Amino acid sequence: MLIVSANMGQGHNATGRALEDAIRQRWPDATVRWVNALERLGPGFEGLFQRIYVANVESVPWLYEFFYAAIWRIPWFAAASRWFTAAWCGRRLAKPIAEFAPDLVLSTYPMGTAGLAWLRRKGKLRAPIGAWVSDFAPHPFWVYGAADLTMVMHDVAVAPALRSSPSAHVGVSAPPVRAVFRPGDQTAARHELGLPPDAFVPLVSCGSLGFGEIETTVRELLAADPSVAPIAICGRNDAAAARLRALGEPRLHVVGWTDQPERYTLAADVVVTNAGGATSLEALACGRPVLMHRPIAAHGKANARLMAAAGLALVSTKDGELAETVRGLLAEPERLKEMAEAVARHCETATPLVEALESLVSAPLNPPTQRLRPEDALFVHVATPEVPQQVGAVLLFDPKADGTPVTHADAEHLLAATPGLRTRLLPGSRLWRARWQEDPGRTSADVLTSVRMGPEAPLDEALTREMDAFFSEPVSPEHPVRARLVTGIEGEQGALLIALHHAASDGIAVISALVGQARGKEPLTPVAVPRRRGWWRRPNVALGASDAPNATLGASHAPNATLGASGVPDAALGASHASNAALGASGAADAALGASHASNATLGASGAPNATLGASHAPNAALGASHAPNATLGRNGSHPERSAPRVALASLAAPVRAALARVASPVWHRLERPSGPSSRSGTAEPARAKPSQRNQAAELARGVWTLARAGAAPRVGWDKRIDSPRRHFARAHLSAPEVRKAARRAGVPTTNLVLALVAEALHRELGGTAPERLRVLIPMSVRDTGTFRQLGNHTGAASVDLPTGAMSLSERVRATDRMLSDQVGHGAPRAGNAVVRVLGILPPALHRRAAKLVYRGTWFSVIASVLPGARSPVVLNGALVRTVYPVLSLAPGVPVAVGIMTWADRFTVCITVPAGQEARGDRLAAAVVEAFGRV
After folding, report:
1. Which pTM does this prediction carry?
2. Are the C-beta atoms of residues 120 and 146 closer than 8 Å to each other?
3. How many CB atoms lie within 10 A of CB 436?
């Protein structure tokens, strides 16, 4: 075991000694070695840093405050400082770590943690890393996602720790102090030290360096009340100890340096300090509340704020406040008792040191983060407290054959396949892009709750009430999946309500995963994180990857697939090899996103195994390369002396070409018109051969022009206010066989017919104020067989002007069909998908603003989505899934969302409206059913 600490006072070393004691308790034969992080920085740096710290605290506290505030408030400054510190310390720690080869590394000093995190990111440290924050308030220099476990001192410190590094794995530690600091006999301790047994004894301790105005503090305590008998521990500040002894006060007990501070802590009623570091932790371990008086600059004040928020300390900052606080405690002894009880509860519930060390050794390493795809990050950026971006599904179960309802265990089994279940979303900042991180320890049991209704509760009433309550509580990025099982509905029916953050997945992936799980298919889950490996050796599983070590975005069933690269040596961006297909490729050989007629072809490539974008006839060729194995950009194997500059150019050009390739790749989104008996039911025609890149570019240009020409959405005369996350959900269902018959009679696809019914309902709702056309955003899946059940959003979207003016229903059906065919056929969905991808190239701050600009009510007034479901029966452990309702989220300024799904013999409809507009949602659902009756 290796402990990385520093001689900056004695607090960091005290935490290290506590950890060493815990190590020897758990592993008596362990070899423990210490490294002084400041000493490793180079000759003279340890003393320099110590002098700077003392000068900052005692002479120029304003400068210390400025730096501390800057690392919280100026992101680029914090990022640059962390990067410089980590690189400097990491390089200096590399040699002793490599020589010792520890099985476990623990840090108690922020610069040490920074260096260890740097070594992990560089692939030079495989051992688990544990970081103990020995201050009560963590700051950005303390917390790093590359550490496998960061232990803070209280629940209130978790939030600032995650603010410092959202990807960090944070736990709450019992005070990391030596075992001698524990609750004990106060009377015996006072007798041993010669202290009055009935006095109020405050222990004044300002750390090993004796910072602060010790004399002023002691004088104020002596003046508070004649029953106050202070103890003053001055540490190595001999001058302060001499001045206090010169006071000649018989009630005052002055102590210099001591190796047994626990005796004085046990004898005290409270501990008075000004830093909140090791002294405060020792007080808490002994069950003593803390009085923070005139806390020192920066971290001292931050510690005081958090300790007060936790109910463990009282803070005084001005002359006379400390004496007033002591008088208040003497007058209200119950207040002191409440604080002591809060201290005891914290120590009982926090994680013991041995348990935390065992988890470090046995649990997986903290997984690395992965960047969210632009299509997914969009929903992170546009979410607001009033308009959270969550989607979901409601599954209704019939009772089993024996009359029993679906069980909690059944629901847990089904939820195990939910996309995003083991995901944490990291929203990012102005400097950092939104990312996601796997949480391997999370299970379906962690997200599932149950409620049983009263006996024979009416189905519609009970389901509406539960849906409105459940989906009105937004999911969080930290926990993007929630579920609730509702039983006790009339006839022993059950309902499973599932909500997940829209950035985690779209509706098709959710339904596909749940159906696959119910039918016994192997769920697509992230690859387990192995032990004892640095990030350079871990599976690079990204959003949507499955069943594949080292798979990346959208790849599946392909070992060793990177972002377009195959298992072939020196394969370049976009290359693939048989089953090792790239972005969006499935387990079917030759499949790439939109590629066809080319064995093993990838984006735009044809006629050549392992060919890349524009490359042909060259195995392992790079972007634009030909006729040369392992060739780089434009090279053919000649003039090796010029290869290095060209390799550099290739590396610079690759990201740009990759982005353009993704934008230009085909997106399968068409609503095909029926051309024969088999297709008149709405079934899509077989995919045609991939068009040329010139045709793709032309279609993309037409789509962008269509979007630009559309402009803002027509004004709609209804209330667009969305004041809270509370929602109401109105439901309806139609006979699927009858819908298909009606679509065949009308000569339109079923999707177009159902959207015409939505247009008719909107016309009825708006009445005389209905515009001639109403802009509806229609998400359209671009999934293929390889991405059908993968995490994330694989959709394009078309902004379609549905006819809502005065006309007959038959005319509305024909007009809707024409508009959909015309607007979708001009490439608008593909262009919309491309725009979202291109926005992802922008810097994070601009990407966030652009996302909010494009996804709002200015451009569309309603969201409507038609989702494919299961046509054959789905049974979960004997319980038939009778019906599934899709749940859509609203958008800012868009107060209506309509989800439609085919399920067995039904088309289900679920309409989302804000709370307070329940009547509108119910009228729209009823109008859809009434319009279908007229069809």
Report:
1. 0.73
2. yes
3. 29
Whether the CB-CB separation of 840 and 377 falls below 8 Å is answered with yes
Segment 136-153 shows an average pLDDT of 94
Residue 107 parent element (H or E)? strand 105-107
Instruction: Report pLDDT for 586.
Output: 34
Structure tokens at 418: 């939910």
Cα of first residue to Cα of last residue in the chain, in angstroms, is 76
Backbone angles phi, psi at 528, to 5 degrees: -65, 145
How far CA 132 is from CA of 13, 82, 170, 242, in Å, comes to 11, 18, 10, 35
Could you tell me which residues are beta bridge partners of residue 36? 5
> Position of tokens 């020409």?
709
Instruction: At 300, give phi and psi (nearest 5°).
Output: -65, -45
CB burial string 895-932: b at 16+ within 10 A, e below: bbbbbbbbbbebbbbbbbbbeebbebbbbbbebbeebb
Tokens 């009339």 -> residue: 490
Q: Which two tokens stand for residue 655?
A: 């990201």
User: 214-236 pLDDT, tens per residue?
Assistant: 889 999 999 999 999 999 998 87
Q: What DSSP character marks residue 9? A: S
Burial label, 403 (beta-carbon count in 10 A; 0-12, 13-18, 19+) = exposed
Give residue 411's identity as a one-letter amino acid code.
A
Quick one: CA dihedral 600, 604, 607, 611, positive or negative?
negative
Residue 637 CA, distance from chain mean position: 45
Pairing mode, strands 435-438 and 369-371: antiparallel
Instruction: Report the distance separating Cα 351 and Cα 149, nearest Å.
Output: 12
DSSP-assigned states of every residue in 159-190: HHHHHH-TT--EEEBPP---TT-S---HHHHH
Summarize pLDDT for 309-341 with one digit per residue, the tens.
999 999 999 989 999 999 999 999 999 999 999
Any residues with CB less than 8 A from the CB of 312 and at least 6 apart, and which?
A: 154, 284, 289, 290, 339, 342, 343, 346
As a whole number of angstroms, the distance between CA 363 and CA 366 comes to 9
Q: Is the dihedral of CA 341, 343, 346, 347 positive or negative?
A: negative
Separation between Cα atoms, residue 621 and residue 39, nearest integer Å: 50
| Residue 569 burial by Cβ neighbours in a 10 Å radius (0-12, 13-18, 19+) | exposed
Q: Are 621 and 612 in contact (CB under 8 A)?
A: yes
DSSP 332: -
Q: Which two tokens stand for residue 58?
A: 């005692």
Structure tokens at 410: 């059944």
Place of tokens 């929903």: 379
Element (H, E) at 129: strand 129-132
Residue closest to 142 by CA, chosen among 74, 92, 81, 91: 81
Give the SS3 label for residue 568: coil
Asked whether the beta carbons of 584 and 593 are under 8 A apart, the reply is yes
Given this model, what pLDDT does residue 786 score? 63
Do 32 and 17 contact (CB within 8 A), yes or no?
A: no
Report residue 519 CA to chain centroid gap. Answer: 30
Distance CA 744, CA 676 (A): 10
Question: What is the signed CA dihedral for 573, 576, 581, 584, rounded to 10 degrees?
Answer: 30
DSSP letter for 690, please.
P
Q: Supply 156's token pair.
A: 């209130």
Amino acid at 508: I
Amino acid at 597: H
- Owner of token pair 């808490």: 284
Reading the block at residue 307, the tokens are: 């300790």
H-assigned helices in 599-692: 643-664
Name the strand (E) or helix (H) holding 463: helix 459-471
Residue 791: closest CA among 582, 538, 542, 580: 542
- What distances in angstroms separate CA 442 from CA 422, 478, 798, one per listed residue? 6, 11, 36
Residues forming a β-bridge with 78:
none
Query: What's the CA angle centered on 647, arms 645 and 650, to 5 degrees?
Result: 110
Check residue 222 and give its pLDDT. 94
- Both structure tokens of 523: 């769920």
Alpha helices in 230-320 (DSSP H): 238-245, 261-267, 278-285, 299-309
